[in-house]
Structure formats: structure tokens, C-alpha cells
UniProtKB/TrEMBL annotation:
Protein name per Swiss-Prot or TrEMBL: AP-1 complex subunit gamma
Family stated for the protein in its record: Belongs to the adaptor complexes large subunit family.
Keyword annotations: Cytoplasmic vesicle, Golgi apparatus, Membrane, Protein transport, Transport
Lineage, opening ranks: Eukaryota, Metazoa, Chordata, Craniata, Vertebrata
Compartments where found: Cytoplasmic vesicle membrane; Endomembrane system; Golgi apparatus
Domain GAE, first and last residues per copy: 699-814
Organism of this sequence: Eleginops maclovinus (Patagonian blennie)
Cellular compartments per GO CC: AP-1 adaptor complex
Gene3D superfamilies: 2.60.40.1230, Leucine-rich Repeat Variant
Length: 819
């Protein structure tokens, strides 16, 4: 058989192919020749054939038939064969294929080989694709090589140890003795891999973290030597000595100094030196400075050092590189809550980033600008943000409008300014605002009694200019219906009143009813406004005609309104003035009660303030542990929920919320009467034939707070389904007291095996900020054995661009919900 072509010739031939079909034909022809060679057990050219096969694999063609040939090359005594064999194993094999287990013995022999380069090949392969079984079998050999004096092998053994720890974390303690002398090594390669190994161990084990905190002075000394050392051509990158090692040490210091005063104190000085001595003209220096800033912000650093870190980020904002500007904005957004005043100094630079052409930078600058708004700078910041709203792309308008609404509600210097700002948003981006912006603005206008004439005049002018922004048109229609008499009388004192007649006002509203731009909801607002004006204007006959016309509208909603208003004119005309009088001042109901801040391990958690001190409720430990681990994690905090007391029932018996728990060993209440056993056993029976809520019995079951943490509050309300008393219907109400919306909100629940649970779709996946609304979701729980209800919940959402996930157990359900 003729000798196969060399790899170089194959590459040259494939590159001459003009079409993909021609290339595919060449590959198939060569693969056939390689298969024939493999079948004939041709040892002479096996290495060459596997090398060509690896090149084809890199081009995306199947090469799995060469896996066993790689194992044969690994078993060869020639170094060139072993090198290609191990490379093929790393590319063609992984732990999902059983073939890789055949390599274990060869790797073990090569780890004990007399040649360091063969040992290095075995370490690289094990560290790249070793399975947990291989790692367990070969960890001892890796640990021996980690103690050797050969720096070439030590650095490879350290990286291999990182892979072993990731695959089999319980083997971590085996490598602990070998780490003692790693940081004393002069070789930078060994130092680098040693720091990677220590970082991995600290991240995976709190015990290791405590153990390695004593190494902080040694790490500080290494970092200081790197900064102060002169020019070293072996490690120099753009004038900086080994920046890769510096970055790794800074990351390890960040982990060791977090939540530890002594370690943080030991590294304050060196961090200040790195921050002030690092050259910023090259990207290498910026990378080190960025890691330094992250370390300063994560440890318990001094206030002056934190200001220095924020000033570095401020300098990043002036950099021409877009990536550096984006990194700076993202970092400032994370630190703005803890170092608000220091970030405020860079406000003008941040606002300038709103004009950047890059959409990612604009979005981060917008989020950071809203985070910087306070009572002192509200006017200036809103001016800039409204200018940005005018000119930004449509993808930004919704988030920007929502942010302006929240900031204006929180920091408005006056009611007139507040109304003007919201109207400006509705005029520029009315089609992009949230659904609740219309009722919120109506409530604001209603409660600002002295601004009614000014507001209705401004809205009337806006209607004359543009009727395409539907939320603006809806608010204007409502205000004209309420305060049309003030508009016609010209009582506005804040600005020069306009002369408007009743017919002109009605012409505008009728124009909205027939406009193609108006949505059905807007037409409903307009018709109701015209009806209200029948008690404020003298043109009652014209209004009657308009209302009667829409009594036959094809829009069912509009038709129903018109029919009811006609009936009001004909049968109940004496009641019309009272029914259509002005709306009273609306009181905004708070969805969250008063909270107090509880310090827990340095973090603040709001907890509900109880009006009465209820006796503590203790759950048996075995009950909490019996709950199925359906959502992952066993170390979940058990939430002792607080339930408001319920007034006495009509029968005069006060519902004792804690009576069924037998806290003092007293007699327990009588058991609930037995229910027929003919009820359907499956949770979903009957859902298809009848609506969910038609057969809910309103039993006296008190509500409860199931979760309250990080601004998110989950309340449970309970009802009982009539067709099946064993089914409890739980409605969750999720509210958000933080300043930003919680997006991508997902609520999940799990119950023990004796229960069955059905989770219906939520009302929304966005929990509005500042308790502006709630997300509701219905849970149906089948409890045929009447056991105490226990539940594990999992909450997932995104807050200010960061994903949040939390688990909790809810064990303190009111007895009425499960008895």
C-alpha cells in the first residue's frame, strides 16, 4: 500500500477546493484511505493518519472512528506518537464516552514516567477531560507531582489539581499539605497556577477560606515585589511586570478579604499602591486597575480607598475604548447604593454617556443616571433624561419613561412640576409607557385640587396638537370630562387662560370617537367624558344625540356604555347630576405594611412589624426535613410567617389562629367533620367542565405573609373549592418595595408526596417597583389526608440587570387552610 500523504499536503489540497462540495469529496476520499489503513493495523503511519483526522475534526467533519487509534498511540513508547495520541484524546473523547476509561492505566503509567515531557502530556490530558472516576483513581499521582521540585511539572500538576477538585470536591483536603510551599516558588508559572488552585479551594470550601486567610501577608508581599520590580523581559507586558499574575492575586485577595476585617486591613496599603502606580495608557494597566477596583469594593476597605476606586472608574468613563466605558458604567451601577456621594461627583460624565452611539453604553448610562437622581438634582437630571427620551431609540423609551415616572413620584419638588414632567413624557413617548401610568396620573391630578384648571388647559392644548399618543389622550379625555367647566370658564391662574367654547370642547371629544388613531379604550374614555359634561355644560341635547348614536356601535364595550347612558337620560335623569359629580380625592392604598430593618450578618432584611406579640411557633425538626427536596438545596431557612389577627365571626367565636398548634400541651379542637370519599382524587378533575372560581367557598381563612426579603413580599390568601373540600385554593400576591422593577419573575412551589399541587399562570412576569402593583398567581393544593400543609418555594427574578434566586420553606400555614 502506498504511503499516505502528509498532513501539510492534505491541508494544501483542501485549501485548493473551490466549493464546499469539492472539499467534502476530498475529505471523504481521505477518510476512506485512513479507515483502510486503520483496518490493516498500519503502525508506521498511524500517527500521521490521526493527525490528519484531527485536522478534519477541526474543520467540522466526523472523526469519531479514530478514538481507539488515539488509545493505541498513547500506549506507544515513542514520544511523537504519545503527543498526537493525547491530543486526539483531548479533542475526540470526553467523559460521556466509556472509551475514555481505557486510558486510565496508560495515564497512570505516564504520570510516573522518567521523562518530564511525557508526564506533562498525561497531566494536560487528565486536567482537560478526566472524569470523576479517573480523578479519584489518579489524584494520588497528581498530589505527588505537586510536591516535586520540578517547576515544569508543578505548574501542570497545580492546574490538574484544579480539575480534580472541580470533579471530586471531597478530594480537596488531599492537596492541602502540598499547597504550603507553593507560594514560596520563584517561578512565575508555578505561582500563577498555585494562586488559581488556592482560589478554587477558597471558593468551594468555607473551611479552606478560613485556613488560607493567613496567607494574605505572603500574597501582599508577592504583589508588592511585582509592582516594585524593575524591567524583566521574561515577564514584561507593555511595561508591566506579569499582569496575569497580578490579576490572579488581586482576585484571590478579593475572596480572602470579603467580610474579614483583619485581612482587609492587611491589604489596604498594597491596593492603594497598585491603584496609584499602575500605568493607564495601555489596556494591560486598565485590566489591573479594574481588578483592583473590584477588590476594593468587595472587601471591608477604608472610605478613602473606595473613593479612589470610584475615581478610577470615573477616569475609565473618559477612555476612548467603548469596552472600558461599559465596564466602568456597570461597576458604578453596582456601587452606587453604597457610595452614592462619590459616584455623584462623576454625574456630568455619566450623563454625557447618554449621547454615546453604542446602545449598550447608553442603556447602562440611563440606568446609572436614574440611580443618581435625588431630591437635590431632580430638576437637572430630569431635564437631561427627558432630552434623552426625545431622541433615543424606541427600544429605550419604555424603560426611560418608567424610570422618569418613578423618579418624579419620589422626588418631585412641586405638584405642578410633577404634572408637567409626566405630561412631557406622555407627549413624547406616550405609546411606550406602562399600563398603570394612566390611572396613576389621573390620581395625581385628582389629588392636586389647586392644579385642576391648569392641568385641564395644558391637556386640552396637547390634544389639539397630537392625538396619536393614546395614554395622553385617555388622561386628557378624563380630565376634560371632570373639569370641563373650569376649561370653559378660563379660571387658570398659573398661565394665561385660553378662550374655549363648549362646542369646541365637544368637537374635540367627538373627533376622538371617530378617529382611526383611537383605540377602543380611548373611545370609552371619550364617551364617558362627553356624558360627564352633560352636568357641566348646557349643550345637553347635543350630548344626548352623540350618546344615542353609539347605542348601535359594533364595539360591544362602547355600545354598552351608550345604552346605559341613554337609560340614565331617560329613566334616571333625576339621579344623573349625583352620579356624574366630580370624583373625590383618591387615597393611594399601600400594599405593604410598616417595616422595620433587621440586621442579619451585615445585610439588611425588612420584616413585618407585628401589632400584637404572638407566641412563638416552633416546628418539629423532622417535619421540616421530611419536605421533598424538589427545588434543590437542603439548607433552606424556614420562614416563620406572621399572620394578622382576624376579627370575631358573626357567631361570636374568635378564630384562634394558633389554637390548633397545641403550644402548651392543652386540648386540641374537635376535628373537622368527615367529608364523603367520593370526591375525585386527581387535582385537575373538573377544571375543563367549569370555571375555576365559580365554586369557591369564602371560608374564614386568614391571610399570611409567606416571604419578605430584599424588597420582595409574597402574601398568601386562601379559599376553599366547593366541589372538592380537599382542594385549597391559594392566591399569591407578590409586591416589590424597591426602586426598580423586578423582571422575569418566576414563582415555583413544591409540596410533599402526600399532596398534589397545580400552579396556574401568573398575571405578569414583572413586579412593579415601589409597590405600584402586584403580581398574582393561583395555586391549587389537593390534601386528601388532611395533613398539615408544608411548602417549599423558589423565587427567581432579575433586579437592575442582575439575576436573583432564593429558596425558602413555608411551614406555618393557618390550620383552617388544611383541616
Amino acid at each position: 500500500m502506498p504511503a499516505p500523504i502528509r498532513l501539510r499536503e492534505l491541508i494544501r489540497t483542501i485549501r485548493t477546493a473551490r466549493t464546499q462540495a469539492e472539499e467534502r469529496e476530498m475529505i471523504q476520499k481521505e477518510c476512506a484511505a485512513i479507515r483502510s489503513s486503520f483496518r490493516e493495523e498500519d503502525n508506521t503511519y498511524r500517527c500521521r493518519n490521526v493527525a490528519k483526522l484531527l485536522y478534519m475534526h477541526m474543520l467540522g467533519y466526523p472523526a469519531h472512528f479514530g478514538q481507539l487509534e488515539c488509545l493505541k498511540l498513547i500506549a506507544s513508547q515513542k514520544f511523537t506518537d504519545k503527543r498526537i495520541g493525547y491530543l486526539g484524546a483531548m479533542l475526540l473523547l470526553d467523559e460521556r464516552q466509556d472509551v475514555h476509561l481505557l486510558m486510565t492505566n496508560c495515564i497512570k503509567n505516564d504520570l510516573n514516567h522518567s521523562t518530564q515531557y511525557v508526564q506533562g502530556l498525561a497531566l494536560c490530558t487528565l486536567g482537560c477531560m478526566g472524569s470523576s472516576e479517573m480523578c479519584r483513581d489518579l489524584a494520588g499521582e497528581v498530589e505527588k507531582l505537586l510536591k516535586t521540585s520540578n517547576s515544569y511539572l508543578r505548574k501542570k500538576a497545580a492546574l490538574c489539581a484544579v480539575h480534580v477538585i472541580r470533579k471530586v470536591p471531597e478530594l480537596m483536603e488531599m492537596f492541602l499539605p502540598a499547597t504550603k510551599n507553593l507560594l514560596s516558588e520563584k517561578n512565575h508559572g508555578v505561582l500563577h497556577t498555585s494562586v488559581v488552585l488556592l482560589t478554587e479551594m477558597c471558593e468551594r470550601s468555607p473551611d479552606m477560606l478560613s485556613h488560607f486567610r493567613k496567607l494574605v501577608p505572603q500574597l501582599v508581599r508577592i504583589l508588592k515585589n511585582l509592582i516594585m520590580s524593575g524591567y524583566s523581559p521574561e515577564h514584561d507586558v507593555s511595561g508591566i511586570s506579569d499582569p496575569f499574575l497580578q490579576v490572579r492575586i488581586l482576585r484571590l485577595l478579593r475572596i480572602l478579604g470579603k467580610s474579614d476585617d483583619d485581612s482587609s486591613e492587611a491589604m489596604n496599603d498594597i491596593l492603594a499602591q497598585v491603584a496609584t502606580n499602575t500605568e493607564t495608557s495601555k489596556n494591560v494597566g486598565n485590566a489591573i486597575l479594574y481588578e483592583t477596583v473590584l477588590t476594593i469594593m468587595d472587601i471591608k476597605s477604608e472610605s478613602g480607598l473606595r473613593v479612589l476606586a470610584i475615581n478610577i472608574l470615573g477616569r475609565f468613563l473618559l477612555n476612548n475604548d467603548k469596552n472600558i466605558r461599559y465596564v466602568a458604567l456597570t461597576s458604578l451601577l453596582k456601587t452606587v447604593q453604597t457610595d452614592h456621594n462619590a459616584v455623584q461627583r462623576h454625574r456630568s460624565t455619566i450623563v454625557d454617556c447618554l449621547k454615546d452611539l453604542d446602545v449598550s453604553i447608553k442603556r447602562r448610562a440611563m440606568e446609572l443616571s436614574f440611580a443618581l437622581v435625588n431630591g437635590n438634582n431632580i430638576r437637572g437630571m430630569m431635564k437631561e433624561l427627558l432630552y434623552f427620551l426625545d431622541s433615543c431609540d424606541p427600544e429605550f423609551k419604555a424603560d426611560c419613561a418608567s424610570g422618569v415616572f418613578l423618579a418624579a413620584e419620589k422626588y418631585a419638588p412641586s405638584k405642578r412640576w410633577h404634572i408637567d414632567t409626566i405630561m412631557r413624557v406622555l407627549t413624547t413617548a406616550g405609546s411606550y409607557v406602562r399600563d398603570d401610568s394612566v390611572p396613576n396620573l389621573i390620581q395625581l391630578i385628582t389629588n392636586s385640587v389647586e392644579m385642576h384648571a391648569y392641568t385641564v388647559q395644558r391637556l386640552y392644548k396637547a390634544l389639539l396638537d397630537d392625538i396619536s399618543q393614546q395614554p395622553l389622550v385617555q388622561v386628557a379625555s378624563w380630565c376634560i370630562g371632570e373639569y370641563g367647566d373650569l376649561l370653559v370658564s378660563g379660571q387658570c391662574e398659573e398661565e394665561e387662560p385660553i378662550q374655549v367654547t363648549e362646542d369646541e370642547v365637544l368637537d374635540v371629544l367627538e373627533g376622538l370617537l371617530v378617529s382611526n388613531l383611537s383605540t377602543p379604550v380611548t373611545r370609552g374614555y371619550s364617551l364617558t367624558a362627553i356624558m360627564k359634561l352633560s352636568t357641566r355644560f348646557s349643550s345637553v341635547n347635543r350630548i344626548k344625540k352623540v350618546v344615542s348614536i353609539y347605542g348601535s356601535s359594533i364595539d360591544v364595550e362602547l355600545q354598552q356604555r351608550a345604552v346605559e347612558y341613554n337609560a340614565l337620560f331617560k329613566k334616571y335623569d333625576h339621579m344623573r347630576p349625583a352620579l356624574l359629580e366630580r370624583m373625590p380625592i383618591m387615597e393611594k392604598t399601600a400594599t405593604n405594611g410598616p417595616t422595620e430593618i433587621v440586621q442579619t450578618n451585615g445585610e439588611t432584611e425588612p420584616s413585618v412589624v407585628e401589632t400584637k406579640h404572638l407566641p412563638p411557633v416552633t416546628q418539629p425538626a423532622n417535619q421540616a426535613n421530611d419536605l421533598l427536596d424538589l427545588l434543590g438545596g437542603n439548607d433552606v431557612p424556614v420562614i416563620q410567617t406572621t399572620m394578622p389577627t382576624k376579627p370575631a365571626s358573626a357567631g361570636g367565636e374568635l378564630l384562634d389562629l394558633l389554637g390548633d398548634l397545641s403550644l402548651s400541651g392543652g386540648p386540641t379542637p374537635a376535628p373537622a367533620p368527615s367529608v364523603p370519599t367520593s370526591q375525585p382524587s386527581f387535582l385537575l378533575d373538573g377544571l375543563t367542565s367549569q370555571p375555576l372560581f365559580n365554586d369557591i367557598a369564602t371560608a374564614a381563612i386568614p391571610p399570611m405573609t409567606a416571604y419578605h426579603k430584599n424588597g420582595l413580599k409574597i402574601d398568601f390568601t386562601f379559599e376553599r373549592a366547593n366541589p372538592n373540600p380537599n382542594v385549597a385554593v391559594i392566591t399569591i400576591h407578590a409586591s416589590n418595595s424597591t426602586e426598580a422593577d423586578m423582571t422575569e419573575f418566576v414563582f415555583q412551589a413544591a409540596v410533599p408526596k402526600t399532596f398534589q399541587l397545580q400552579l396556574l399562570s401568573p398575571s405578569s412576569n414583572v413586579v412593579p417597583a415601589l409597590n405600584q402593583g402586584t403580581v398574582t398567581q393561583v395555586i391549587r393544593v389537593l390534601n386528601p389526608q388532611k395533613q398539615q400543609l408544608r411548602m417549599r418555594i423558589k423565587l427567581t427574578y432579575t433586579l437592575k440587570g442582575s439575576p436573583v434566586q432564593d429558596l425558602a420553606e413555608v411551614n406555618n400555614f393557618p390550620p383552617q387552610s388544611w383541616q
